Amino acid sequence: MTRAHLEILLLALAMLAAGCRTTADIQRDYAQTLAPAEVQGAPTSTAAGAHDVKLRIWVDQEYQAHVIGWPDKVRDMVDRANAVVGPAYGIRFVPELHSWNREREDPNLERALEDLEKLDPGTDVGWVLGLTGVMGMATPNIHDIGRAKLYSKHMVEHAMDDAAEGQALDRAFTALSQDERIKLYRDRLHHKELVVLLHEWAHTLGAVHTRILSDLLYPSYDNTQGTFGPPNAEIIQQNLAERLRDANAVNTQAAHEVVLKALQRDGCPACDPADLPKDLALAQSAPAAVQATTPPVKAPADALTESERAQANDAYARLKAGDTVGAWSLAQGLAKRHPDLAAAQVLACGVAAHAPSDVDGRFACERWQQLAPKDGRAKLGLAFVEAGSGANAAAATRLVEAEELLALDTAVTPDTWGDAEALGRRLQVLSAVERAAPHLEATESAKASAWSTHQRRRLGLPPDASPFQLEPAQEPEFATLHTQASDALAHNQLAAAQRIIDAGLARWPGAPGLLGLRCQLREARNDLDTARADCEAALKAWPDAVWPHFDLGLMALDRRDFATAQKQLTRVTELDPTIKSAWRNLIQIANAQRRLDEVERLRSAYKKQFGEFPSK
Predict the structure, then answer these.
(1) Is there a single domain that holds both residue 444 and residue 391?
(2) Pair type for strands 154-158 and 146-148
């Protein structure tokens, strides 16, 4: 139901009269027609038990700022999705949450999807989801709210926010209790969020749009949407089964054939006739080659027999087609038969880096390293394999070691440095990203440097953290601890936050980011003098840590020390222009001082960064 339809129907309530029935009775009956349908998927005979599938979720700053208590709410969203895909398809998404530090230049999801694919190739997980801030305008078009590519692993979704709908419900259902109105609004919001997520997930498996309003693949949102119908129930079931056998069997010929067969059955009566020719053409097109996001793999040659060279080329072809299991079965045989041939180990190590996490190619990467101890690519390949198996601490150490060797090799290509930079982002080894940046193409180099700078300022992690006994390979651990403490503070779990912060400071004494967190903790306990001392100590250790400036600004604002508040919050906007509340507080200060020109300047700057400044 569109916003216009909703408004018309809501206004029509004022014209209803029904004998002795109360206004509340009439409004309650109508509210039931707006309640969302139950989402059930499409139960299949194969949906027995539950196959755990890792879902890596990257949550950007805009989303985190908008959704209060976002970690719990994101997990709740995944739980709602599991309530559908579990009974229907026998899978259970296991969420893995990460902060996503990205420059949101516009709300266009195509750019967000490109950024996500570059950040995380997803070779070690089932799917990768990016969550970004609210769109800023109302729309029923699902692809304005979420986006995914056909035959892929990646999808993105805006935070849900429809304040106008909430206001419309409040105006129309004046006889209902606030709890009833809030429940209706929240149920509709959760339904929309779930429909968009399942819609985009289905697209990654090749599902197409239908013309059935209640179908989850209908292109516009409606509160009646509740199931996957033909032809998509068949497409999802068959292509999901193949994904469960090989997580990287994504854009394969077999997946296209499943879609083509389903679309051709009986002329596909549920399909949109306007879209069907395009959908058929896409299903008939050859799958795109899988792009390597790990060290480039080349087929070995010299010391192999003719049949073995053919086997190596077949392994490489299978890898490009997405058949990593088939590629691994061939490559590991070559590596084991030729333990002293570096090229055979290169192939097996590279395939293992793309393969599912249960493929252990460590032996090939380690043997390559033994045969070529000065080749940084061997350590880099091993870092990818370790990251794929979940050994992130070991992978971080290996990545740092790999870059030390790569820096000594003038023959290393920008592509190899690009692989190192991508893994550094994924693991949050900021020093690795910075070391790789000068070796990249100019635009990519600038992006890498900007990303790392932004991340450091938010974490309060200076480029040289050695005075705090923090080595580059420990940066992911520091980032994880910082996130855990921040989440505990956001949920007012002060005792838990203190335990985390104290443990961090015992390991990395004086680290600015941790002093900044302790400042927030003491501020929450109203211990303002020691809070200010911690924030000031953090800035003395590293002046570019953004949150101590922010907290000093808020404490100054609370005591109406406008000059200090303005100075600190202005510095926040210089260090990190994406923090909305800093701009809003600066506008509040200028308003309080009746500096109208400054208010206008700040509003203009806010508009360029975020859109129109809220009226209230």
Answers:
(1) yes
(2) antiparallel
- Three-state SS for 604? helix
Clarify whether residues 422 and 321 are in a common domain.
yes
133 and 148 fall within a common domain: yes
Question: How many whole angstroms separate alpha carbon 10 and alpha carbon 7?
Answer: 5
In the chain the first and final C-alpha atoms are separated, in Å, by 28
* Full domain range(s) for residue 553: 472-610
Task: Specify whether 345 is located in the same domain as 217.
Answer: no
- Residue 275 backbone dihedrals phi, psi, to 5 degrees: -95, -20
The CATH number of whichever domain residue 120 belongs to comes to 3.40.390.10
Domain-located, residue 24: no
Specify the pLDDT at position 279: 82
* pLDDT of 163: 63
- Examine residue 505 and state whether it is found in any structural domain, yes or no: yes
Residue 16: inside a domain: no
* Structure tokens, 543: 């002046």
Q: Are strands 146-148 and 127-132 parallel, antiparallel or unpaired?
A: unpaired
- Among 141-150, 178-187, 574-583, where is mean pLDDT lowest? 178-187
Instruction: Using alpha carbons, list the distances in angstroms from residue 366 to 345, 373, 421, 429.
Output: 9, 10, 21, 22
Residues whose CB is less than 8 angstroms from the CB of residue 28 and which lie 6 or more positions away in sequence, other chains included:
176, 180
Q: What pLDDT is recorded for position 21?
A: 65
Whether the bond into 231 is cis, omega within 30 of 0: yes
- As a whole number of angstroms, the distance between CA 313 and CA 472 comes to 38
Q: Give yes or no for a contact between 157 and 77, defined as CB atoms under 8 angstroms apart.
A: no
Return d(Cα 502, Cα 331) in angstroms, integer.
48
> What CATH code is carried by the domain that includes residue 526?
1.25.40.10
Mean local confidence (pLDDT), 395-409:
91
The percent of the chain in helix, strand and coil, each rounded to the nearest 5, is 60, 5, 30
Partners of 58 in the β-ladder: 98, 130
Q: CA-CA distances (angstroms) from residue 550 to 231, 459, 466, 565?
A: 53, 13, 25, 9
Q: Are residues 271 and 322 in the same domain?
A: no
Domain boundary among 402, 436, 468: 468
- What pTM does this model have? 0.55
Beta strands (DSSP E) in 108-221 are 127-132, 146-148, 154-158
With beta carbons less than 8 A apart as the criterion, state whether 199 and 232 touch: no
Same domain, 91 and 211: yes
Q: Is 597 domain-assigned? A: yes
**Is residue 162 very low, low, confident or very high in pLDDT (cuts 50, 70, 90)?**
low
> Binning pLDDT at 50, 70 and 90, where does residue 148 land?
very high
